[in-house]
Amino acid sequence: TTLKLGFLPIATASPSPYYPRVAWSSDGEILNVAIPPQRIVYGDEAETLLWQIPREGTAEQVGGVPASFFHPIQWSAERTRIFYAADTGNPNAFDLILADADGSNPTTLDTGQFAFVWAGAGDRFLWALDDPDTPGYYVGDPDNPRRYTFADAVFHPVWADGSQLAFVTSDDDGLTMNLG
Which distant-in-sequence residues (6+ apart) come within 8 Å of 78 by Cβ? Predict the structure, then answer.
């Protein structure tokens, strides 16, 4: 089976072409993809379009969000929620948004520079603030995030399993890989 969704090339302001990040449903029957506006890096104000493509059938646009080009949209495992970063007008800060999979019901969780990721089952999430003044990360379910703080900045968090996180901290002595 060939799944098709045609779109014009996305300007990247670099010699590297844009390739959308695809996200498969856990049963492998549905593909989700976000396609940004063609000229997003040049200030195009159009929304990033959210598409759902069944293995058998036709691609369907399910919504749109004002997502930043520099932070790929991430779907929860069950494909009911998304994380995305929205531009704030400040080049050093983004709004971290949690929304329904079609972009409706957006909630701003934080503003700054961060990394974010869903847990494998998609019922919990994590985001780390890449801010030396407020190092730490938030973890929890969408309705009850909890903040954990560190003396050092936290980078590149990933779920090691359903309950533990792996992440890097940085201090004057170098980098440390952590599991916690």
Answer: 26, 122, 123
